[in-house]
Amino acid sequence: MTETTDVVARLAQHRTLGSAPREELAWLAAHGEVFSFDRGNLLAVLPEVLDTLAVLLSGHFAIYVDHGAGPHKVMEWSGGDVTGVLPYSRMSKPLGEMVVDEAGDALLVKRQHFPALIRECPTITEKLVHIMIDRARHFRSSELQDEKLLSLGRLAAGLAHELNNPASAVARSAELLTTMLEESEQAARELGAAKLDAAQLAAVDRARQVCAMAPAAPLTPIDRADREDAITAWLEAHGADPDAAASLVDTTLTIQGLDELAASTPDHALDIALRWVSAGCTTRSLASDIERAAARISKLVGAMKNYLYMDRALAPEPVDLVASVNDSVALLTYKARKKSVGIDVKMHRDLPPVRTIGGDLNQVWMNLIDNAVDAAPENGRVAITTSLRPNHVVVHIIDNGAGIPRGIRDQIFDPFVTTKPVGRGTGLGLDIARQLARRNGGDIEVDSEPGRTEFRVVLPVAHGEREAPAASTVPV
């Protein structure tokens, strides 16, 4: 009796439960057992903590969870807190590793007493239910944050590769551009010293203008090699530098055009004129290469900025679905290309906007498209299409992979359920995607069979129903 009285006295000082009626605290003390724990792994010494309510009287411990980004502290408890299994809780397995940082003790009440606890201790039960709701919200927030960090990690790796090519192209072309500008200036000085008349200078200028024009279509490797051989032979036959052929081959300057230039230019000035024309062609070509590479960098940075919704409030707003999906696809292009998976985006051009939190929606696309690329075989396909339902837009994400195993199809949205190999999936992506879709008034449906898996994201339109518009195809 004395021991129970001491426990009741300690419970009365408990930060969480101390305000409950004295008789409820006494009931709790009578049906519980005080357990002392030392520093270390709590589950190793008290595995039954997963089947008990733990009212911490002193000490401190924390739970560490690893969702693929390394273990980190998710929650911690000290004297005055309540943890373990709570009434109405469905927790059946540890959510992580429980590590005791400071030795202490706790009152443990086994799950078998919960029906009586709910009946005899309504005030304590109410407090425990609130604790359970707060804990679920906290873990959900932590899981979402982990999934976002993992997504960002995957994006950062792919984005680094995607940015490296155009960035290298800019650096390389800029270095060559400096050399070619010097060559062009030198050729211009020599051309001026050749003292050509106005008609001759006009012929050289015409050749340079034709040279600057881009061809209607790129040449095949065989046609390009044949053209380079023909230009090289012409240059050698006219005593000009054959190295100029490399810069003339991808232009619209023809052999006939070269003949016209040779006919209008004195022999002593032909090689100088060709060098000036060639330098001008190469300079323009390098400038175009830099422009294209810089545009690619700008597009990737823009897609990342849109994906992260930088400088935007996290509040529902009308969202352009086509742009939202295409930004996510752009960020996954490297991964798809690495696996030789094609992503075909065929969405209606004039879809009605949906009213969502844009960042949430981008996370949904990233999880589903990333999963589809993982599921598709080498040289496989992922198709993204749209359809309309009354007051809703549906985005279909389809892959031609092996399909979801029949045994887990009903649990595919449950936390920690994954079809990926160990270490490659957290089992949280689909659960989080559906939670985000539902938070924005939508839902996710799935159908799967061998060779075809389809996820459908159903979202409410911002302003009523529309007729189905024409479709546009954007292959990636």
Please, could you describe this protein's structure?
The chain is α+β, with helices and mostly antiparallel strands. It has three domains: 2-120, Sandwich (Jelly Rolls); 163-299, no CATH class; 313-475, Histidine kinase-like ATPase, C-terminal domain (Heat Shock Protein 90). It has 13 helices and 16 strands. A hairpin with a 2-residue loop joins β14 (443-449) and β15 (452-460).
Question: What is the helix tally?
Answer: 13
CATH class of the largest domain: Alpha Beta
CATH evolutionary superfamily of the largest domain: Histidine kinase-like ATPase, C-terminal domain
Poorly predicted runs of 5 or more residues: 421-427, 464-476
Q: Give the DSSP E fraction (strand runs of 2 or more residues).
A: 15-25%
Q: Can you tell me the CATH topology of the largest domain? A: Heat Shock Protein 90
Indicate the percent of residues in helices. Answer: 40-55%
Q: What Rg, in angstroms, do the CA atoms define?
A: 35 Å
Order of helices and strands: HHEEHEEEEEEHHHHHHHEHEEHEEHEEE
Average predicted local confidence, pLDDT: 79
Fold topology:
Blueprint: H1 2-12, H2 22-30, E1 33-37, E2 40-41, H3 42-45, E3 52-56, E4 60-65, E5 72-78, E6 82-84, E7 97-102, E8 104-110, H4 114-120, H5 122-193, H6 198-212, H7 221-237, H8 245-248, H9 255-264, H10 267-308, E9 317-319, H11 321-338, E10 342-348, E11 354-356, H12 358-375, E12 381-389, E13 392-399, H13 429-439, E14 443-449, E15 452-460, E16 471-475
Parallel strand pairs: 10-12
Antiparallel strand pairs: 1-8, 2-7, 3-6, 3-8, 4-5, 4-7, 9-11, 10-16, 12-13, 13-15, 14-15
Helix pairs in contact: 1-2, 5-10, 5-11, 6-9, 6-10, 10-11, 11-12, 12-13
